[in-house]
Amino acid sequence: MPSHLNEEEDKPCRACSDFKTWAKKQNKSKPQDVKPPPVTEKKECPLDKDELGRHTWGFLHSMASYFPEKPTHTQSNDMSKFFNIFAQFYPCEPCALDFKEDIAKHPPKTKSRKDLVKWLCERHNTVNIKLGKPVFDCSKANERWKDGWLDGSCD
């Protein structure tokens, strides 16, 4: 195995595969009678604030969920730098300023995957509260962003 790969990278990974490939690695198959939806020519448009936020949170939570369980000192520092740089360049200026203030009060916790997942969930809940949205149960973060719901609804 190449030195840059670790044992976890050999495991099937939803974020690393399309669903069909992931399902095959899980020894599951898609029912044969299900046909893919027809391809339509829909033009993609720029993301609005809500779409940008939803996609960004999905990306950030997925990134945290796949962060090493025991990162090196360099990985830990790089992830902290990432969040600080991310806050500088986020396209929604009021959101970026708000996030910068929040992470100044609550710096990224990057000593482990568990710490980072919890920290990011707390940051997301801070935004949810400000927007009047429901607070997410951070104990369910792995189900939501990495492993899939225990009820099998993601399989």
Report on this model:
The protein is mainly α and 155 residues long. It has six helices and no strands. It has helices at residues 19-25, 49-65, 73-89, 93-105, 113-130, 141-147. α2 runs antiparallel to α5, α2 packs across α6 (141-147) and α3 runs antiparallel to α4. The longest helix has 18 residues, at 113-130. The protein is globular, with a radius of gyration of 18 Å. GO terms for molecular function: flavin adenine dinucleotide binding; flavin-dependent sulfhydryl oxidase activity. Residues 24-47 are annotated as: Disordered. It is found in: Mitochondrion intermembrane space. It catalyses: 2 R'C(R)SH + O2 = R'C(R)S-S(R)CR' + H2O2. This is Sulfhydryl oxidase.
Net shape: globular
Please give the number of β-strands. 0
How do the SSEs run, as a string of H and E? HHHHHH
Gap from first CA to last CA? 29 Å
Based on CA atoms alone, the radius of gyration comes out at: 18 Å
Secondary-structure content class: mainly alpha
Taking the sheet with the most strands, its summary is:
none
Mean pLDDT: 85
Itemize the secondary structure elements and their pairings.
Layout: H1 19-25, H2 49-65, H3 73-89, H4 93-105, H5 113-130, H6 141-147
Features:
51% helix, ERV/ALR_sulphydryl_oxid_sf, oxidoreductase, globular, 6 helices, ALR/ERV, mainly alpha, mitochondrion, 155 residues
Provide a short characterization of the protein structure.
By secondary structure, the protein is mostly helical. 51% of the residues lie in helices and 0% in strands.
